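Q: I'm teaching a short session on how sequence maps to structure, and I want students to see two examples side by side rather than one. Could you give me a first protein with its sequence written out and its structure tokens following it? Keep the formatting plain so it prints cleanly on a handout.
A: Of course. Example one:
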Amino acid sequence: MMNSTAPPGQKRPRTLRRAQLQMTVLITCIIALIYTVVIFRSYDGGLDDALKLTFDMDAKDFERRYAQDPAAPLPITPQRQSWLSWEQVPANLRAHFTDHPITIGKLHEAKVNFSNKQLTYANLVAREAHFIMMYPYQLNDGNVLYMFADFEVTLFTKDEVKRIDDRLDFTVPLGLGVLAFVLVLSYLFTRRVNRATNQLSVWADQMTLDTMDQHPPDFRYAELNRIASQLQSSFQRISKLVEREHHFLRNASHELRTPIAITRANLELLNKIGIADNIQRPMARIQRANYTMQQLTETLLWLSRDMERQPPVRALKLQAQLNQQCEDLSWLLDGKAVHVAMDIGNATETIYAPPAALQIVLHNLIRNAFQHTQAGKVTILAQGNQLTIRNHDEAPLDSNHPDSVGLGVLLVKQICKRLHWPFEMVMHSHGVSVTLQLPASNNRPAV
């Protein structure tokens, strides 16, 4: 199972579970907020709408009677009074509605004897607080009927006031309760989904060639089951490709070894027959190239087979290996103003490594240094079991060129990784410096 904890100072990776939980919390908070506001406004506005409807019905009833008899009595109750013009309204009532414009058909409210202190029932009763509601209604003849209602707090009992306040205050806890309920459900659901995804991850990590044909377990959700099926199909396709590659390598191994063996046998036959002295040196180079080709073939086949054992290790002289490679590659420096400086005075005399692998590594590193230096210096420095090969060209290195660091670097990295040889390459403005740690004992690396 993958660990989602990020190292100190590094941003935690974004996970589907966290993103889903955050989005659920955000949506739930928005819904709960809207729900609370709507409930509060509905309850508070409902009282106003009920009062306005009562005013409106009384005004229409008076309008019908007023059309038949202009002397019809105004709608008056112990808590309600009406006047046919603003000038007829008593000054004490007009004073409460002078701060805001009066709109026909709209309910207006004024609070009398309220203060900024705590609005307790005892405080409101002591101050004889009351609400004054005004509703202006325009009649058919153009006159405006001003209807007033006066609600004194002293006319309400303490329990009645508390019941009204409790209904208003209940909207906030109700919204918080809905929010908590949705969050708990979201947490349980995301934990359930995360458990199923973790099971899928563990199953994918534990899939092997022996178990890849077994039917995947049920991961509860159709999407996860489809992903598991696709992973299994991909694993099976990759396994078939690897098997075909191994089959090809086994056949290629025989096809490559045959011409190399024929060439080597004919070279030995030529040596027995006898050759002229002037071609002894070229023949020796051909024999070394044939041997290198054989070793290279074996090494490439070994790199292609992950399960194959490590090649045999032999005691080798580092100086002799370096001298041999420099001599074989000296033709790369023909016609170039390049100075080769070799310092192996403090090097370990004997190293233990597979001969073919070491020859390929040294061959590619030295070849790259010779090939990509037109005028300058190549330095080969050995200290203990550490080997450094560095080239300095008078012309700047073109790092954008695909062959700027040599085509054999990839092969060198693969060999060093397989044999656990520390390898480092640093590019400079005028060249490349590579550092290689070679084994100084005959202990074979763990596979």
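Q: Perfect. Now a second example for contrast.
A: Example two:
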Amino acid sequence: MIPFTIDPGSYDFAVPPLVRFGCGRIGEVGEVAALYGREAWLVTGGSSFVASGAQELIAESLRRVGMASHHVATARGEPTVDDVVAAVKSLPREREGAVVIAVGGGATIDLAKAVAALATNLSAEEASGDLDAAVVDRLEGVGRNLPITTWPVPVVAVPTTAGTGTEATRNAVISCPRRRFKKSMRSPMMVPRAAIVDPDLTRSCPRETIVASGLDAITQLIESFLCRFKKPLPRALVLDALPRAVAAFPQVLVHPCGRESRAAMSHAAFVSGMALANSGLGMAHGVAAALGIECGTPHGLACAVMLPITLRVNFAEAFLDYAHLEQAIAPHSNRCDQADAEAFVARIERLCREAGVPQRLSELGLKAERISWLAENSGGASMRGNPRELDTQTLRGILQAAW
């Protein structure tokens, strides 16, 4: 067996300073928010806020600590520049003592993180002027690349899905359909000040959300483990969380109310956020963002479609890591070789197939004549972390074969 070793070298590790994980922990949101402010700004999902039961539980928790609240934004899908602008315009004038409570899926928490950052980082001229430009200027690669220099309003993140892990990340993904981009606002200061991860809040998720979010988390765990910027702490966390997720994911599809399997997926999602934020990702996420722009494919579904393709593309460069992951999931031998690596890829392919994930890009509505555009727009930080370096021409061939 080839030993699993990695030189720790030099690294950073940024995570929420306070994490409360477990069923029923939503009742503690008022107590946690009161550590950071005296007035709550609520950013919520469109339907999950009510369907998950969070609305009443949070209202009661805030009443217990005597904290006033204002509902400042509702996410209706993956956040756009227009959504961020509208939310910033709705903020109360008084910012002192505010704390943002974000309750929803990854899109909701991303919207909240962007709003919290802009609330403290806009100049007076920007705040009274062209907010659209001010938002774009703080997104990577599309504006003036203005940094986040002032600590955002504290964010307490409360996920109602088990997928993106954005409750543990340092960025907010914002798209602009009219400009055809999906980019990140990013800063170590944007990591939420607290995360309350209550698996009970995921009970109301429909099957399509469970599939997309669950496979998004699994993709993030795998890609962060393989990433060319991989770090030792995230890899150690993945070796704990991925086997739990691979075992729990089929169970939560069959028995969505099963508490143990839901808890395992919520744990996996949170760990995946810490792992990607402190290592990186790869081709699956690099292409998924462009698929979202081109086809309107939900992020988690795009990642699920790209994951088996990505594993095959990176096999030569990453097969030893695949073998280690297979041994963590099913330690059936003392080998850690190419056979284990093949077993791992087959395992993930089977998991995606049994969940009903499309196997061809054409099934997502991608037109053949748009493959070149997709290849040209699948760059960014995620693609830079891919184990195999891919130029546009090579990626175009991969996407054509997957179409």
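Q: What should students look for in example two?
A: Point them to this: Strands lie at 18-21, 39-45, 68-75, 98-104, 155-159, 171-176, 181-186, 194-197. Also worth mentioning: The first strand starts at residue 18 and ends at 21.
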